[in-house]
User: Which sequence fits this backbone?
């Protein structure tokens, strides 16, 4: 991944050699050659190397100011720290945007360029269970990780502070080399991505923010795209989601006790826990694997033939056994094939139980009849389902079956998102990956979610995606990490990841 | 409740006055008069009063050595402390009986009497959640409680250390007065009552223990029988119970993940949480209020006409509004009448969810698909259901529906128990309550459970019951208490409760 001699001649040579090695790579060398008045990448890279320690420290400091939206923990300082990072990186206008939840951030960097590029950041992180971590989750320690090299371990290391700090480092390097950013930047950030972004639309649709975003050619999210082997999968879209709690309680429904009572009373009083179980049972098919909510599939668009081809190409490059093993799973649902399962991962709406909580949850038993029962759930959505429509259908479905007493407390969610395979954002990503010897896979739709629809849907209808070399893992899990110095030549360390963002900015700009 | 002048003449006078006042009281004055060589109750009472502080301290010290079976916490010291209390009270033979779970105790007191009485003790207590207590649960503080007087607050205060310490105080008083116990005693104790007594049968059926129990006329459990108004309800029986966990997991079943994975994977993998919900749903009727397990009602004997009369008599003395309010309930199941609901409390088998635990149970949500889901449950049983039969039917029911992958982990349980209304144990209880101005209700069967079947069933077939003046409340709840000095003349404080046990022993003996 080291490009220590980034003169165009050597780049072309390396690119050609790599193109000969890769299959079906896009020949962008001619495009690059056209940009003869381009940046001095060598000088910028020199800055990247010189600023390495400062870049690492910036990321570590950021991790050490955690902001956990689900627990409303430390969000103010987390937002403020992020705002300062943006100012330090050169954004002239950085503004906290208050919402009914956690604040967002609106920032602009005017580089006097012809074109403008949008950026999406999140500054919140997932909850942690510290006892599960071998290195404390907010220490941001730099440790040796066998097979990877030196990594930063911490909550947010890869999701998303590592990649975001990597992008900011690109801005620092360009400025440090005395060069101009080739595009203006408009950045919107939220502090609620981990809780399904309930107020992000409020930030983005503020009239001046919307106007600024309308000026953008597209929007991207810095991302650590490489897997441990250096491979990259480009997601052309993502499922939508709604996250909610279904709550049954005697207090709310008037049936059953309003507090925990002795379990012998089951003979005479209703049980909110049973009520919840029975309501839940109406939501899925007999094998529990598909939603059975009235009208749920009305607007669902099945995968196209092309999308299935893309998935098939992905599968051809993957190893089913590896995936099964990493999940600790022996069979896909209904014992279907890998191909069918991956089609479902991209194309099928889901109804999932994240957690169940009722009554006594400690060791052994306790003879109580609980007054309350909760199911924490998420539902993934595909085009053309909408988060608003899904909520409405769920409530109607429950009401129709006499479960109107079940509270449906939606905490967040958003529509699915899709970006055109042929958009410049995607094409340039592919080109840069190819240049670095990577044959990126094209995934029509991620099984998970991000609020890209805010950009790809009405009224903006901009292409949106992810980009970035680099690797990390453990999002939402213990021991989340991000690679700083890579011991694997196929995987970019921090410096190379920073340079990939530098290349991305200049290459995008060249083609607008 | 003070009988400061217990000469027979004044007792007769008081009894007569009370009999004129109470309805349908049993005339036992003649029986009492026959026992002319009876005990010197005045002298015994003097000891009770003199030993008051020591009696209170004994109880406080006992509460301060908690033993929580569900958490396997401190059980060794709890058992040892109890053994010593028995030795101190005069049991010459006190033996710890090891089991595959918590140890039991077998103790005998040979008073050289003609007849022998059995006793059932439990030395374990329920779990606590200290943050819910206004006085720490194991401090055993003596506090003023408005409307009641001075009470000891602590886990086990009323359930069961208070009443058991009260009985032991009776033995101390009798001995302190230089008098003989009128009966020999055989005592069996367990440390697992709060976890449904999984090993108690092993203690009781040890050949020498069984032989000792066979010599008993009956067995009773000291109990704080009075409600806040001083009223008493005598239970002629109790439902049986089984307590268990139903567990669905990818690890055990081979379907779904063996650990928590990202929730987007619901499209491709089975969910143990949904599996559990669907299995649970097969166990009850459409409104969740009755078991729907195959064969569950095959051996159920409906309430007899007489049992329903007894319940109706209870209801006539009760206030439905009071009960509803104390439970925080607005309606009985199916909006039935108080009468129907109380019939069900005595006569209907139940299937209850004590707790649900799966995946993420903290604040907000977390986008995981959990690898495991647990339902903690208890099922109350009526004659002629058996704990063994119930387990077998539950497993068969689940297996028949394809849910054989659900683990059924039974932690404890036992059969229903019934004692003849006309047994001496019950008759003498009624007489003593009447003598103290109480008209005890007769409840054919408690909706809750105690392992009385161990005594009333094969092979012992002995009458078994509860007895004791005194009041406390909060079993299994925060701020459990037991009245020491009663500010309500209708409710016995410690000294009067101790005397009630003295009277019980002598009166039982007189009639054997």
Assistant:
């Amino acid at each position: 991944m080291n490009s220590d001699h980034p003169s165009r001649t050597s780049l072309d040579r390396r690119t050609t050699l790599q193109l000969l090695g890769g299959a079906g790579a896009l020949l962008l060398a001619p495009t690059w050659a056209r940009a003869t008045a381009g940046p001095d990448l060598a000088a910028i890279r020199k800055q990247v190397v010189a600023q390495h320690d400062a870049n690492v420290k910036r990321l570590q400091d950021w991790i050490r100011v955690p902001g956990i939206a689900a627990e409303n923990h430390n969000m103010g300082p987390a937002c403020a720290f992020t705002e300062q990072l943006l100012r330090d990186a050169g954004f002239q206008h950085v503004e906290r945007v208050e919402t009914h939840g956690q604040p967002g951030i609106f920032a602009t960097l005017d580089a006097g360029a012809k074109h403008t590029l949008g950026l999406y950041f999140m500054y919140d992180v997932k909850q942690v269970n510290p006892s599960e971590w071998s290195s404390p989750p907010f220490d941001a320690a730099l440790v040796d990780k066998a097979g990877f090299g030196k990594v930063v371990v911490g909550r947010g290391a890869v999701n998303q502070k590592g990649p975001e700090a990597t992008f900011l480092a690109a801005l620092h390097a360009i400025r440090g080399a005395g060069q101009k950013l080739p595009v203006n930047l408009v950045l919107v950030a939220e502090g609620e991505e981990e809780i399904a972004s309930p107020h992000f639309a409020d930030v983005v649709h503020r009239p001046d923010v919307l106007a600024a975003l309308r000026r953008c050619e597209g929007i991207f999210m810095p991302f650590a795209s490489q897997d441990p082997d250096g491979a990259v999968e480009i997601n052309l879209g993502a499922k939508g989601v709604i996250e909610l709690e279904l709550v049954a309680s005697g207090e709310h429904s008037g049936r059953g006790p309003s507090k925990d009572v002795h379990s012998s009373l089951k003979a005479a009083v209703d049980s909110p826990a049973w009520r919840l179980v029975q309501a839940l049972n109406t939501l899925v098919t007999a094998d529990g694997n598909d939603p059975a909510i009235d009208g749920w599939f009305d607007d669902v668009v099945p995968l196209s033939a092309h999308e299935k081809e893309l998935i098939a190409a992905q599968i051809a490059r993957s190893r089913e056994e590896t995936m099964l093993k990493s999940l600790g799973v022996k069979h896909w649902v209904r014992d279907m094939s890998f191909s069918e399962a991956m089609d479902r991962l991209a194309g099928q709406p889901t109804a999932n139980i994240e957690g169940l909580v009722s009554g006594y949850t400690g060791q052994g038993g306790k003879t109580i009849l609980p007054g309350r029962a909760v199911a924490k759930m998420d539902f993934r959505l595909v085009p053309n389902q909408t988060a608003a429509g899904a909520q409405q259908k769920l409530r109607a479905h429950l009401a129709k079956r006499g479960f109107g007493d079940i509270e449906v407390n939606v905490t967040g969610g958003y529509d699915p998102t899709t970006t055109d395979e042929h958009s410049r954002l995607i094409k340039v990503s592919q080109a840069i990956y190819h240049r670095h010897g990577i044959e990126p896979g094209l995934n029509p739709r991620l099984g998970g979610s991000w609020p890209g629809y805010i950009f790809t849907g009405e009224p903006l209808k901009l292409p949106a995606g992810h980009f970035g070399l680099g690797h990390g893992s453990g999002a939402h899990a213990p021991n989340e990490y991000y690679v700083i110095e890579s011991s694997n030549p196929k995987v970019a360390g921090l410096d190379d990841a920073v340079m990939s963002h530098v290349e991305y900015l200049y290459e995008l700009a060249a083609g607008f």
Remarks:
- Chain B touches chain A through 88 residues (CB under 8 Å).
- The longest strand of chain B covers residues 240-249.
- Residues 13-238+417-511 of chain B form a domain with the Aminopeptidase fold (CATH 3.40.630.10).
- The longest helix of chain B spans residues 494-511.
